[in-house]
Model the fold of this input.
Amino acid sequence: MKIRQFTEDQIIKLLQDGKKGERSVEDLCRDFGCSTASYYAWKKKYGDTNADEAKRLRRLEKENARLLRIVGQQRLEIDAMKDVIGKSGNAHSETRRGQAAGRGAHQARTGLCSGGPGQILLALSGKAASGQRTPTADP
Done:
């Protein structure tokens, strides 16, 4: 069975005829070639609108659907960027943790510290206080 498309003008005319009450909804729908379920769905959707308002409603619905697609696409892009940033941020912090662990082991073996001058002095003073020899830069 072929599905028939009705224009807004045809639907509005049918709804206005039904509102007059001269004929029953069933008779109107039979003559028009639609079901009573369609009539009541259209009545719910269009209500007391005229043809111009129905066209405006259709145009607004299309624009709303287009904007929703755009927002959905942007949301997906934002989520993808967050995933990339989150993964690279975790990898970066894990790399830094690994480097820090390696530096700690190197510092423990050599007694050298790569912090600032204050940390170097503390490292040297700790070695000197314990009676150990401190490594020198000049051989």
About this structure: Confidence is low (pLDDT under 50) at residues 109-130.
